[in-house]
Write a structure and sequence with these properties.
The chain is of the alpha/beta class and 552 residues long. It folds into three domains: 397 residues, Glycosidases (TIM Barrel, Alpha-Beta Barrel), CATH 3.20.20.80; 47 residues, Oligo-1,6-glucosidase, Domain 2 (Oligo-1,6-glucosidase, domain 2), CATH 3.90.400; 76 residues, Golgi alpha-mannosidase II (Immunoglobulin-like), CATH 2.60.40. The chain contains 14 helices and 18 strands. α5 links the parallel β7 and β8. α1 packs parallel to α2, α4 runs parallel beside α5 and α9 runs parallel beside α13. The chain is globular and about 75 Å long. Bound molecules: 1-deoxynojirimycin (NOJ). 1-deoxynojirimycin binds next to loops.
């Protein structure tokens, strides 16, 4: 079905999205930085994957302290990426191709170079004075990116709150004028024709009254109660929801440390504040948030996270499914294997694309891009990696710290997309703003286009299969063998049809286990990540995945 014509209530349920972190996507104007000219040229490619929409990470003017998540103008395009005219061209062409477009809405904080903050800093008696959170005395909160969460401004003689970097002051959402600004930003983009928003750390926008001291930031602590799910969050989101309701728009919220219980308030509460939420639970299968605490991958943890969300939301809410984005290292390097690159890359696609929910695929994930290992911390650009190296883990031995960065830096997701095997991986004609992964000769779009059995073509097959059956959209989820440490097995059932997804996370052959129903004649294999049969009977090959269809 054409994504432009599905009904308002559930068009997002049938969709899958492709996420663009533009700086590293495709350089169309030859300055080494990805841009909207590059995006324009690649829209057919995106469409060819079988996705139905694009989520743009921030495209707005930004000093790039946090690569776009520090916005200095919400109603324009960063000159590095083009301008509003070029954005409109991209939007129109995307719509012609049947692709929806959603924008990143970053409203917990702005850049300290945003005119509101520049004014606000001047003193307590200007119109923007209460746009941010100012205090005479800081409380004990830690920031996520840079030491303490408060910074002193001599000009104003007060401290401002920044949950993220110093250059990302938190907006005061309790101020109705700020909420009006947010609505005006939403309308600006919706009037232009965008179809919705991915809402950055949306569960942080209402803070506890009086900003009392809280637990210091401990990665293992159950969330950060003083930052998240504040007392007015649903009130404020209801106001934003009203704007969305004036348009045929949808909202997916990013919810760090969101538990199922709190997510339910957002998804099913009286205001139905959001359509979907990105949870981080499955990202804890090896590390917390990005890189605070890396630990060996645990399949049972991954399965438990997936299953808990699948079961809890059944019939009540809708899942946002992802394995990669710009904040996490690449999955093959985390949950798969470089040796079994192709097999594990495909298996990792199947393991989540058939879950119940709306899948998001991050640029480069579809060709199996992997982590980069840069020689020193100075080569890394990401503020959070630097903070973890220099502050959070400062007592550790430097080699150990660098190893941790290799495993977990967000920069591994931010290397230029590998389009072909020419110089700079076809990303640009000049040296790109960031390092190209040296494996681009082997891993690139052009090569995988030619290979029927590539990871790229497997993503296409999975998305095609997902779309071909209502069972894979609406069917009930059930997990089998939850205690198995090598296999992830689940099925999706609707009426008399069901699909069984079996994924091996093992480098060694493992015994194939199937519920009885899928052994008889009514079941047939519809997709597998190995081209040829010929496996040892009854065993799965390394990282093999098999998808069976059962029809009564
Ligand atoms: C979540 C975004 O995905 C991440 O990239 C950013 O650093 C933080 N929010 C702060 O905006």
């Amino acid at each position: 079905m054409n994504s432009q014509t599905v009904t308002k209530s559930d068009w997002y349920k049938k969709m899958s999205f492709y996420q663009i972190w533009i700086r590293s996507f495709a350089d169309g104007d030859g300055d080494g930085i990805g841009d909207l000219y590059g995006v324009y040229d690649k829209l057919e490619y995106i469409k060819s994957l079988g996705v139905d929409g694009i989520w743009f990470s921030p495209l707005y003017p930004s000093p790039n302290a946090d690569y776009g998540y520090d916005i200095s103008d919400y109603k324009d395009i960063h000159p590095d990426y083009g301008d509003l005219d070029q954005f409109r061209k991209v939007l129109d062409k995307a719509h012609e191709l049947g692709l929806k477009v959603i924008m990143d809405l970053v409203i917990n904080h702005t850049s300290d170079e945003h005119p509101w903050f520049i004014e606000s800093k001047k003193g307590a008696d200007n119109p923007y004075s209460d746009y941010y959170i100012w205090r005479d005395k800081p409380n004990n909160w830690d920031s996520l990116f840079e030491g303490k969460a408060w910074e002193y401004v001599p000009e104003r003689g007060q401290y401002y709150l920044h949950i993220f970097a110093k250059k990302q002051p938190d907006l005061n959402m309790d101020n109705p004028k700020v909420r009006e600004e947010v609505k005006s930003i939403m309308r600006f983009w919706l009037d232009m024709g965008v179809d919705g928003f991915r809402e950055d750390v949306i569960n942080f926008i209402s803070k506890k009254e009086g900003l009392p001291d809280g637990l210091p930031f401990l990665p293992a602590a159950k969330g950060m109660p003083h930052y998240k799910d504040g007392p007015h969050i649903h009130e404020y989101l209801a106001e934003f929801r009203q704007v969305c309701n004036e348009y045929d728009c949808f909202q997916v919220g990013e919810g760090p440390m969101t538990t199922i219980k709190t997510a339910m308030d957002y998804l099913t509460g009286p205001t139905k504040s959001l359509d979907m939420m990105f949870s981080f639970d499955h990202m804890m299968a090896d590390c917390f948030y990005t890189e605070y605490m890396h630990r060996p991958f645990s399949l049972p943890k991954l399965k438990k996270a997936f299953s808990s969300w699948q079961y809890a939301l059944e019939g009540k809410g809708w899942n946002a499914l992802y394995m990669e984005n710009h904040d996490h290292p690449r999955i093959i390097s985390r949950y798969g294997s470089h040796y079994y690159w192709k097999e594990s890359g495909k298996m990792l696609a199947a393991c989540y694309l058939f879950l119940k929910g709306t899948p998001f695929i991050y640029q480069g994930q579809e060709i199996g891009m992997t982590n980069i290992r840069l020689p020193s911390i100075e080569h890394y650009m990401d503020i959070s990696s630097k903070n973890n190296y220099y502050n959070y883990h400062k007592k550790e031995d430097p080699d150990k710290r660098l190893k941790r960065i290799h495993l977990s830096s967000r920069d591994s997701a931010r290397t230029p997309v590998q389009w072909d095997d020419s110089q700079y991986a076809g990303f640009s004609t000049v040296r790109p703003w960031f390092y190209v992964n040296p494996n681009y000769k082997k891993i690139n779009v052009a090569g995988e286009e030619k290979d029927e059995s590539s990871i790229l073509n497997f993503y296409r097959k999975c998305l095609k299969l997902r779309k071909s059956s209502d069972t894979l959209i609406y069917g009930k989820y059930k997990e089998y063998f939850p205690k198995d440490r090598q296999l992830y097995v689940y099925d999706r059932c609707l009426d008399n049809e069901s699909y069984l997804i079996i994924c091996s996370f093992s480098r060694l052959p493992v015994k194939l286990k199937r519920p009885d129903k899928y052994i008889g004649k009514k079941a047939r294999l519809v997709l597998c990540n190995y081209e040829k049969e010929g496996h040892i009977r009854g065993f799965l090959r390394p990282f093999e995945c098999r998808i069976y269809r059962y029809k009564d």
